[in-house]
Amino acid sequence: MLTFLASFFAPPRDLIPVVIATWIGVTFAEKRAARYNLKVEVFNNFVFYSIGAFLLVGGYKAIAFNLSAFPNILRIIQINIELFDVWQGCAGAIIVAILLGYRFKLPLWRTLDVLSFLFASVAIGIGFSHLASGSAFGKETTLPWGIHLWGAKRHPTQIYEITVSFLTLGLLWLQKTELVPGTTFFKFIAFTSAGRLFIEAFRGDSILILNGVRLAQVIAWVALAVTLFASESIHQRRKNQ
């Protein structure tokens, strides 16, 4: 299966699933925007410019590296992806999103509720991306559903990741929209954090701290605790109004 995916996702095979998932996620979010009392056109502009900021800020080094090729559009499209800084791009997208949210007067929690569908879809794409590239691989195992990767039979953690992400999106999609604003977003964080706690237990390439503690699990526990506390605070505040 892994061999098939590796051949199907031709270079850059690990980016294609993320791009497709982002497009699908934007479509899902657009369909939900009206149900969460957001103007679809305004929300679409908000998402478009935020994604644009992510690409520009994260890839400014790659663009600068190919600046001499600007007359050749095809060369610009084929910029060196290894120079792309994901975290830098996320920072740029968040800053632009905050400014646009203020400019468009978008309600914070309702906007985050709708964006949760985009985030959940992208998470699925990232899982397929890991599967296609062989990254985020699992520990060695003798279980029958293990996959052969990097010279050993391993836990298919990429498939675990995809499954958890699909379940998260499905649970979000099936819930009611007449909820306290922010509930959908907090559920997304809670489901994702819980899934990460499970997946990391089988990862073979996790970042370890403090004599074997998995960094991703620490972050997931913190995110889960903060989410549960914030969610409870919002519900209590809603009751007191």
Structure report:
The protein is mainly α and 241 residues long. The chain has a domain at 2-9 and 109-240. The chain contains ten helices and four strands, in the order αααααααββααββα. It has a two-stranded antiparallel sheet with strand order 1-2. Helix 8 runs antiparallel to helix 9. The longest helix has 26 residues, at 108-133. Residues 4-11 and 69-79 have low confidence and may be disordered.
List the SSEs and their pairings:
Layout: H1 2-8, H2 16-33, H3 40-58, H4 60-65, H5 73-77, H6 86-104, H7 108-133, E1 147-149, E2 152-154, H8 157-174, H9 183-200, E3 208-209, E4 213-214, H10 215-240
Structure in a nutshell:
The chain has 241 residues and is mostly helical. The protein has helices at residues 2-8, 16-33, 40-58, 60-65, 73-77, 86-104, 108-133, 157-174, 183-200, 215-240, and strands spanning 147-149, 152-154, 208-209, 213-214. The radius of gyration is 20 Å and the shape is globular.
- Tally of contiguous helical segments: 10
Helix share of residues?
55-70%
Based on secondary structure, the structural category is mainly alpha
User: How would you sum up the global shape?
Assistant: globular
The proportion of strand residues reads under 5%
Q: What would the average pLDDT be, to the nearest integer?
A: 81
